[in-house]
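Q: What would this complex look like in 3D?
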Amino acid sequence: MILPTHTCRSCASQRLASILSLGETPLADALLMPQQLDKHEPVFPLELVFCHDCALVQILETVAPEVLFGADYPYFSSFSPALLRHSRSNALQLMASCKLDHRSLVIELASNDGYLLKNYAAAGIPVLGIDPAAPCATAAIAAGVPTLIEFFGVALAEKLAQDGKQADVVHANNVLAHVADTNGFVEGISLLLKDKGVAVIECPYVRDLVDRCEFDTIYHEHLCYFSVTALDRLFRRHHLYINDIKQLDIHGGSVRLYVQHVENVGATVNDMLREEYETGVDRLEYYRNFAGAVIRLRTLLSTLLHDLKRAGKSIAAYGAAAKGATLLNYVGIGTDTIDFVVDRNVHKHGKFMPGQHVPIYPTDQLLQRMPDYVLLLAWNFFDEIVSQQQEYLDAGGQFIVPVPMPKIV
Ligand code: DWN
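A: Here is my prediction, written as structure tokens for the whole assembly.
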């Protein structure tokens, strides 16, 4: 079914075909305060589509960035130790490979709470963060990471370049998929990057989303779901080239792109492009069965939780994650099924999950309340969380991992 009322975020084609609809859903990171529970909660359509002309998978709805990433944006990267380790390793590799020193400049777009740039700053390498969400940007500044509390785009890139602030390294982790002006963002990277600079960009990989049925990573913050094919066409449109690529486990499966002004495309990129062509990732057919797999997963998870409740078991959840909101709302898991969610992020405590209004508590509540089962909404940090909650497991608790297939561990 072609949707003539919309155009592709990358190539402006109108040849968009529907893959999956998750219905009208609340904003995944719009956690509620107690006084908001009886107020109207805005919901928006969440429909995943495929562009026949550039292969970009994307959602149709664009919620205003000021609404998504405003003063209440609750996501702080530093509450994930695994993410901190992952980021530090990336920074150390680039310090060495790019021979960065006090004359260099490293800029991160969507720099959050300084989780990544602090590694460069500690080594005496000049940094600049850019993030529109005041809560985490303020935390970054307090941690010694200079940060502009602004949205990034062509206008800011031009200003920085005019001020002589072009970068040797531009980081953009889990932000390219989030921006309403996809082309403007990439053009901004081109303007910000020194001639011999490198943009190091991480984003979730659409093949992992489909192959591992990670439907819960679909929410309004994530406007695009990238294949290498779609990324390559997007960057080439702005005379930028993906010269190297790494596949990563972080966030359920991501790619790290090494993008430069000069074309020197390596085997890692050509191999992935060829693999995508051979498996059909650049054609609609590849996504044809995804909706069916998601519906089957919903049924299996709902039945498992229902059976546990009928057996008199108590269930909680771990990770007040954005993906957790999508999962709870799409599967219909509410306070009749799970009693509470725990999370390490103190900014989320005392609030409630969007849509299902499940309360969010500190993680020590698992041992204190000892639910029989814990639904792992932050499954992408399984190893970290299981090792952290060994005492709960030793006391007889069990985790339920919801994707790619619901299983009790
Ligand atoms: O793209 C995005 C990803 C990168 O982060 C953002 N748009 C929003 C956010 O999505 P998410 O909330 O699904 O991401 P996480 O990082 O998977 O969320 C994990 C949640 O679990 C956080 O609230 C932190 C929490 N956590 C915890 O309580 N204990 C995480 C770890 C590792 C832990 O040990």
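A: To summarize the key features: The radius of gyration is 21 Å. The mean pLDDT is 96.
Q: Very helpful, thank you.
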